[in-house]
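Re-run with default settings, no changes from the original entry. Doing this only to confirm the output is reproducible before filing.
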Amino acid sequence: MAQGKAWTKEERNVIIQSLREYLELGFSRNKACELTGLASSTLSNWVKEDESLGIKLQGWENAINKVAMQNILDAINKEGETDDARKETTKWWLERKMKADFSTRTDITTNDEKIESGVVILPSKNED
């Protein structure tokens, strides 16, 4: 396998910092690499070599989730007071980016081991 360019420590740090803004906005690592001109395989190799880098990247990736969670808290606290548009945007984000915790889609395994997908419809707050 051919070796690519050897990056200096300073160049590597600049490149990693350039990924931060994209990751904090919710871009995937691959898309952030594409936008900065770094091969995603290079970033993967750097993460394999430096566990703390992986942790740092994960923190940046979770920054948008923190904002979404704060919006949910704000929406819960303001529920019924106003018709805040952030509620729908936050709901959309969480359903797609934090699927394990917030997706409305459920997978059901039947006796045939076949997986069926569906959407759980929850009653509105005013319905019983």
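The longest strand covers residues 105-109. The beta strands are 105-109, 115-119.
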